[in-house]
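Q: My labmate handed me this sequence with no annotations at all. I'd like to see what the chain might look like in three dimensions before we decide whether it's worth expressing. Could you predict it?
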Amino acid sequence: MKKIFFIISIVLAYCFKANAQQAKDEYKSMVDSAINIMYTRYLNAIKKQNSDYYLNNLYLLNEQDQPLNYVPSCSKFKLINVYDARNRKVLSKGIYAWKVFTILRKNQFEISIVDFYITYKNHNYNFSNGGGATTVFEYSCDEGKWRLITSNNRGI
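A: Here is what I predict for the chain of 156 residues:
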């Protein structure tokens, strides 16, 4: 009896594990979509100005000022730990960074990307905000998936 119960529990555990691995991580894909939308907008604006310095020297951060390296589009950006003492020399010259904030309100998922210029001088970190974008996804119970509602740029 114990052997049968043990075998059935292993089979069920394997089935649940296999099913869980097939699910797509919707959080990562929505954050990645919001980053790609903003990146494409900046890329189109920079092509008109013939200057790609900004996008080639852009860092991607999460809400805690740590590198955002779990999305597929992170390869387009440089990664840095802002509060690490080894990076103070880079920060003393100043860096451009996008900081990603996420908020879930009822059935809407809001992703805000804030454009910052970060410097470190006289033992102080300075964050200068230059604008950003907000992308909103809404969950549709009928369809069983997230839909893009809006993507708005804001800034100076």
